């Protein structure tokens, strides 16, 4: 699948020759669902992923810079409002330069952090992706579109700190109108983007026609059994 030339906005790995990051295959531009059987399973079971409501559109950014954390690789994500609890894969690029997505065969129930984005809690846009459905039915981010501003997202980091984010907005974008610069571009606050597929499914191309994007900002952080306020540059 090909998409508009928006790779300039995606966080890229350290330069290696002429390798270019392409967003084909990525949840934000297209978290590719391979085969008609994927959506057919959900349709036959009469299970349809919720779409964001107009009232959930909210804001895509923060009103103030807010707190931030030091770099630490994320290991799991929890979204109590929609029953998500998943370890986080750490994925990079495919050999062709496209961004990896979790395997539908083995990891449909697991979300993934794009390892060339900032780690959750750092200043910048951290990116976490997940499938909406699988060969057998709903996948990890099936209910992502049901979130609303104010809902909580917890991302546990390798250093033991849990970064607590608050949703500011939930929006659905047609693939050909996907605002890559806004989603992947630099920010001056600790931002989190959760991305999956959404909208109608095109049986001809075997792809969804839209993407669901959740925008969130860091509000605080906790250590095991001890709540702490997140501070700028907190390790």
Summarize the structure.
By secondary structure, the chain is mostly beta strands. 8% of the residues lie in helices and 32% in strands.
Notable features of this structure?
single chain; 235 residues; mainly beta; Sortase, Chain: A; eight-stranded mixed beta barrel; globular; disordered N terminus
Bulk shape:
globular
Compute the number of structural domains: 1
Query: How much of the residues is beta strand, in percent?
Result: 25-35%
Name of the CATH architecture: Beta Barrel
What is the residue-averaged pLDDT?
A: 81
User: What is the number of E strands?
Assistant: 9
- Assign a percent range to the helix content: under 10%
* CATH C-level name: Mainly Beta
Count, helices: 3
User: Span between N and C termini?
Assistant: 40 Å
Which regions are unreliable across 5 or more consecutive residues at pLDDT < 50? 1-8, 17-46
Largest beta-sheet details: 8 strands, mixed, barrel
The CATH topology name reads Sortase, Chain: A
CATH superfamily: Sortase
Rg over C-alpha atoms, rounded to the nearest angstrom = 17 Å
What is the N-to-C succession of helices and strands?
HHEEEEEEHEEE
Q: What structural class results from the helix and strand content?
A: mainly beta
> Going across the major beta sheet, what is the strand order?
1-2-3-4-7-8-6-5
Explain what the structure shows:
Helices cover 8% and strands 32% of the residues. It is mainly beta. The chain has a single domain, classed as Sortase (Sortase, Chain: A), CATH 2.40.260.10. An 8-stranded mixed barrel has the order 1-2-3-4-7-8-6-5. A hairpin with a 2-residue loop joins strand 8 (207-223) and strand 9 (226-228). It is globular. The termini are far apart.
């Amino acid at each position: 699948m090909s998409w508009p030339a928006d790779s300039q906005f995606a966080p890229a790995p350290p330069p290696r020759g002429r390798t270019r990051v392409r967003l084909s295959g990525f949840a934000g531009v297209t978290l590719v669902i391979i085969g008609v059987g994927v959506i057919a399973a959900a349709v036959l079971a009469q299970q349809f992923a919720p779409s964001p409501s107009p009232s959930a559109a909210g804001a895509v950014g923060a009103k103030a810079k807010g707190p931030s954390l030091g770099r630490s690789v994320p290991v799991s994500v929890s979204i109590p409002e929609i029953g998500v609890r998943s370890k986080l894969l750490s994925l990079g690029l495919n050999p062709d330069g496209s961004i990896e997505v979790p395997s539908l065969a083995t990891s449909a129930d697991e979300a993934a952090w794009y390892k060339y984005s900032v780690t959750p809690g750092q200043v910048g846009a951290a990116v976490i992706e997940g499938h909406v459905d699988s060969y057998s039915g709903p996948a990890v981010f099936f209910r992502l579109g049901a979130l609303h501003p104010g809902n909580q997202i917890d991302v546990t980091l390798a250093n033991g700190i849990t970064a607590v984010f608050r949703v500011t907005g939930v929006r659905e974008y047609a693939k050909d109108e996907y605002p890559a610069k806004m989603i992947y571009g630099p920010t001056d606050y600790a931002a989190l983007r959760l991305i999956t597929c959404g909208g109608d499914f095109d049986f001809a191309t075997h792809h969804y026609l839209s993407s669901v994007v959740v925008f969130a900002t860091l509000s605080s952080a906790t250590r095991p059994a001890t709540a702490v306020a997140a501070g700028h540059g907190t390790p």
